[in-house]
């Protein structure tokens, strides 16, 4: 199945880009347009490794393909560097939503860490307001182009700093004003969710939902802590839950698997896995299984009944889109439209929305795929 230069593909006569999609794991500072970085960097005096947008896009892709999450995260110095003013934050958020809409997304959750955007003198409240302004401008622009989209903020705390409770309180304060959930980001290995237990206790007392990065750079203990200490309703990546599966035998399409207690809990409780295939390859999250997309345990998890969802993680670093990720999976594992629809339905069911709104998304997905 050919994937064109725009990352689109045709499956069963349908453009993948035109299919309705749900985006659950998408970082704001990982989705800045290279051309915007060039323009904003000049305005704030930030030195770039490349000053041509195409060359800069190549630089991001090369630096991100290191096999190390730590090295991968270093590329964010540039994107965060141009997101320190109200104008920069609003523009990046607006363009982010416009890019989601162009990718066929009808509902998205954008995660970002307000504490990383204070160097320009803005307060935590001001940066959240600036991003929300951009989101709403992007939604209005998309509507003007005939595309309905809704985007909510996942306010994130950096797991290696000591501001998690403050950020959790910030997220709750903006409930109803753009914030739909909480997350923790940054270096996973060595910084388990248990370090932020006070913040998660507070969120639980406020009935505010959390998704937790776990099972990417660290293994099963990280996932266990996300569920127990973080009360995570979703797992950010979570790909290494496959380490708790023992493949006993394979005969054709039949696979006999022994489940560990943790894997069975995640599967049986339908806890969504926010899988990001290209990113998982780049950061080495699937190194235990191989170095090609075909080695990704995505299909094993899907066939075993886990609530798998498809995400981009960082569009700029992986030079990808949700359309491209779906097309690559379809090409690699021979998925059809019914499979791609299942991934969107899983994501809709896991969205941090009221059940009535999730049911509406499910109807929109069914209608879009039927057409």
From TrEMBL:
Q: Which domain of life is it from?
A: Bacteria
Q: Which GO terms describe its cellular component?
A: cytosol
Report if keyword Zinc is assigned: yes
Q: Which cofactor does it need?
A: Zn(2+)
The record places domain Adenosine deaminase at: 20-367
This protein's record includes keyword Zinc: yes
Q: What is its EC number?
A: 3.5.4.4
Swiss-Prot/TrEMBL keywords: Hydrolase, Metal-binding, Nucleotide metabolism, Zinc
GO molecular function term, any single one: adenosine deaminase activity
| GO BP terms, alphabetized | adenosine catabolic process; hypoxanthine salvage; inosine biosynthetic process; nucleotide metabolic process
**Which InterPro entries does this one have?**
A_deaminase_dom (IPR001365), Ado/ade_deaminase (IPR006330), Metal_Hydrolase (IPR032466)
Say which family it is in. Answer: Belongs to the metallo-dependent hydrolases superfamily. Adenosine and AMP deaminases family.
Q: What is this protein called?
A: adenosine deaminase
Name its species: Microbacterium rhizomatis
């Amino acid at each position: 199945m050919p994937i064109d230069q725009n990352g689109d593909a045709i499956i069963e006569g349908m453009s993948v880009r035109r299919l309705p999609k749900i985006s659950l794991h998408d970082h704001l500072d990982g989705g800045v347009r290279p051309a915007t970085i060039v323009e904003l960097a000049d305005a704030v005096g930030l030195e770039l490794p490349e000053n041509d947008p195409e060359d800069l896009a190549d630089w991001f892709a090369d630096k991100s393909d290191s096999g190390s999450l730590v090295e991968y995260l270093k590329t964010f110095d540039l994107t965060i560097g141009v997101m320190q003013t109200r104008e920069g934050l609003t523009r990046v958020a607006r363009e982010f939503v416009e890019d989601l809409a162009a990718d066929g997304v009808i509902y998205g959750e954008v995660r970002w860490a307000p504490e990383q955007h204070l160097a320009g003198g803005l307060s935590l409240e001001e940066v959240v307001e600036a991003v929300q302004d951009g989101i709403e401008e992007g939604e209005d622009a998309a509507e003007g182009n005939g595309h309905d989209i809704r985007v909510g903020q996942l306010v994130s705390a950096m797991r290696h700093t000591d501001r998690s409770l403050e950020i959790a309180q910030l997220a709750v304060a903006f409930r109803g004003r753009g914030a739909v959930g909480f997350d923790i980001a940054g270096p996973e290995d060595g910084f388990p969710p248990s370090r932020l237990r006070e913040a998660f206790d507070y969120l639980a007392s406020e009935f505010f939902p959390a998704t937790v990065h776990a099972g990417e750079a660290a293994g099963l203990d990280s996932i266990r802590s996300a569920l127990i200490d973080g009360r995570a309703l979703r797992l950010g990546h979570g790909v290494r839950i496959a380490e708790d599966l023992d493949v006993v035998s394979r005969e054709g399409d039949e696979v006999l698997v022994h489940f560990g207690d943790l894997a069975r809990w995640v599967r049986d409780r339908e806890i969504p896995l926010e899988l990001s295939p290209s990113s998982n390859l780049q950061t080495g999250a699937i190194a235990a299984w191989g170095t090609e997309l075909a080695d990704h345990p995505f299909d094993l998890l899907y066939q075993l009944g886990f609530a798998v969802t498809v995400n981009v993680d960082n569009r700029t670093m992986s030079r990808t889109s949700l359309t491209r990720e779906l097309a690559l999976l379809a090409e690699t594992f021979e998925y059809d439209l019914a499979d791609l629809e299942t991934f969107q339905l899983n994501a809709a069911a896991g969205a941090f929305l009221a059940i009535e709104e999730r049911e509406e998304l499910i109807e929109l997905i069914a209608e879009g795929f039927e057409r």
